[in-house]
Amino acid sequence: MIQIEGDRVSGRRRETTFLAQRSYQGGRIVYTIRVPLTTLDLILPLPDPDQPIADNRRVDPRHAKAFGDYIKAKQSWVAPTLLTRDNGGCRFVEVPDTDGQIGYLTIPWATGAISPLTNVDGQHRILGIHLIIRALGEEVQKIDREIGRTTRADRIANFEVARDKLTADLKRLENESVGVDIYLEPSNVLARQMFVDVADNAKGISSALRARFDSSKVANRILDPVIGHALLKDKIDLEQDRMTGRNPNLMGAKHVADLIRGVAVGVGGRMGRQQEQDLADEVLVERVHGFLNCLADGFADLSAIAEGALKPVDLRAQSLLGSVGMLRVLAGVYHELLETEEASDEEIIAFFSNLDPHMNAPASGSGIWLSTVARADFEPNGASLIMRTQNLVHLAKVVTGWYRTPPNIL
User: Fold this and answer.
1) How many CB atoms lie within 10 A of CB 231?
2) Record's Pfam families (predicted)?
3) Integer angstrom CA distances of residue 250 from 196, 238, 314, 324
């Protein structure tokens, strides 16, 4: 007689079982599991940017796509645990001799099952993972169709190389997983409060901290050797993004990264992925140090800052050079003079020395900044620059032009 073990056939069941750890947090039971990336959208609802759910924020599809691109491009990617809510639909069966801490957790599927999980935190990661896996699969299918249409050996070979790379990316993602914490919370009201509490207690990373820790950007990687320069040493705020009037530092780490980018590609320039890879760190450090030398040698107040004879607080009170915006403009000018004029550092120092007498703050109505086309980039009272990127780019272009054709006042 043929015997069929019905419990081994899962065709009728819209659920998946994981090995889980059970713990407690905030008075709630929490199940912790690891979920393969390709299984994630099976048990977690897929966020819809066009239809945000009431208990969560609207999803930004660009942000989600960016996360998917990130895990595809960076094999050493990292992401925090996803947070979800179980309203009672999961079943936990203890493993003997584990004091109830380890067991088998059966989770209803996100679609077509009763009482599925709901997302609390991590919507963009969930959608991003789904999008990149789907995109890779569609690309493989597209290449398969192209291979079937062509008879040229060279095209087939090229397609197969591309297909091998895509399938390698897919296999890597299939073998990787992400952590999921599942909070047992039957109450809809308390579940909504969970999302509010997560949002309220999350401290976003400041641009200054990002500049210090994000080593994917060359401008961030070389921060340490750059801020060792005498002009910046011990004068950089490593955590704050804004320089308030009484901040004892010259600028923040984010601003140093902005200066590095200005020297490398200009005020409004962007460093593409290939350029990030091609530009040697030590070469850019040397170039940025050259710019900082020109600042210290060309402007008396910055020389005093480097020597410790003037405090950044006093610099901001008396000079436009205390503005991060003006320093970014000068970084852009330095870039243009090197690239387009092939000027030497000595020639740039001489040019900066000519600008030095005009750096008093606020700018005078009859001075170089408000009596020329540069006035479009200053506040009406001349106290400060307009910090929009288009104004910094315009002012850098104006000042660069003065190198060859200076106004009469210069």
Assistant:
1) 20
2) DndB (PF14072)
3) 37, 11, 10, 8
DSSP structure string for 159-195: HHHHHHHHHHHHHHHHT-EEEEEEEE---HHHHHHHH
- Supply the pTM of this predicted model: 0.61
CA angle centred on 115, ends 114 and 117, rounded to 5°: 130
The answer to whether residues 43 and 109 touch, using CB atoms and an 8 Å cutoff, is yes
**Would residue 75 be called left, alpha or beta, if left means φ above 0 and alpha means ψ between -120 and 50 degrees?**
alpha
Helix (H) / strand (E) element for 17: namely: strand 15-25
Q: In the chain, count of helices (H) and strands (E)? A: 16, 9
Measured CA to CA in angstroms, residue 74 lies from 20, 126, 211, 212 at distances of 28, 17, 18, 19
CA 332 to chain centre: 23
Which letter, b or e, does each residue of 340-373 get, where b requires 16 or more Cβ atoms within 10 Å of its Cβ? eeebebeebbebbeebbeebbbbbeeebbbbebe
C-alpha distance across the termini of the chain, in Å: 104
Q: To the nearest whole number, what is the mean pLDDT of the chain?
A: 90
* Angle CA 298–299–304, to nearest 5: 120
CA–CA gap between residue 218 and residue 284 (Å, rounded): 9
192 half-sphere exposure, CB direction, 13 A CA radius: 5
Q: Tokens at residue 24, please?
A: 């407690």
